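User: Hey, quick favor. My workstation is busy. Could you predict this chain's structure for me?
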Amino acid sequence: MRETVLPSPTVRAFFDRPTGSLQYVLHDPKTRHGAIIDPVWNYYPEAGAVTTESADEILDYVQAEKLTIDWILDTHPHADHFSAGPYLKEKLGAPHGIGEKVTEVQKIWKKLYNLPDDLATDGRQWDRLFAEGEAFMIGEIPVKVMFSPGHTLASISYVAGDAAFVHDTLMMPQSGTSRADFPGGSALELWNSIRDILSLPAQTRLYIGHDYPASGEAPQYMATIAEHRLSNRHVKDGISKDEFLATREARDATLKLPARMLEALQVNIRGGRLPAPESDGNCYLKKPIGKFSPR
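Assistant: No problem, here it is.
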């Protein structure tokens, strides 16, 4: 049987080495319309400083390639970096979107941070809250939204032709899968999400959210469905649900929280914005003390 030929976007990856985060620009090579996925707003916890070098690198690429950006897209509220969505929206005029379940993440973390009542938890910080199965176009390339919880309960994937942006579900095949132990996470839901992803056509290119190469080495960030089904150490064909759950939950029990998590989530539930300045004109972030294990 002949495989269906899917439209193929051009994809350019950008790597933030301090957090191991992959950011993507995809575009339709015919119309040169595109989207930015999971952009990083750089944060330096030792100084309490935020800078825009990662987002500016993306802006330079967009300008050099003469792209029209239709969307700035988050896959979920990230725990290791601040979203640069609002900054890029200001520069490019494109709407900022995320999955509709982000409202549940907002409620969890608003309570954990004991944030004031005036922090809205209805997702209004974004221009669009995508539902499961929703579709839109980037140029002439159709994009479908897949609800893919597990890492967080709000996680979604964007399937654009023969490319799928699957965030913190899968790692590269030799590394397996992503953690599922954050508040609202679930190893079982992660398994179900990954099985849905692996049911996409075999030639689909999967672009992941993180890699952690040794100093001086380039990141790896793309493998096909066929490659994952053949060799992903956690979910390749032949591994059962029970085997996966045992492996994932044992691994998660050994992991420390990401270094920037307690700062990042209170920014990202605001859509990538700092809290309002206080009376001295400065912004301040809160850290809950004693709510998480030091492991």
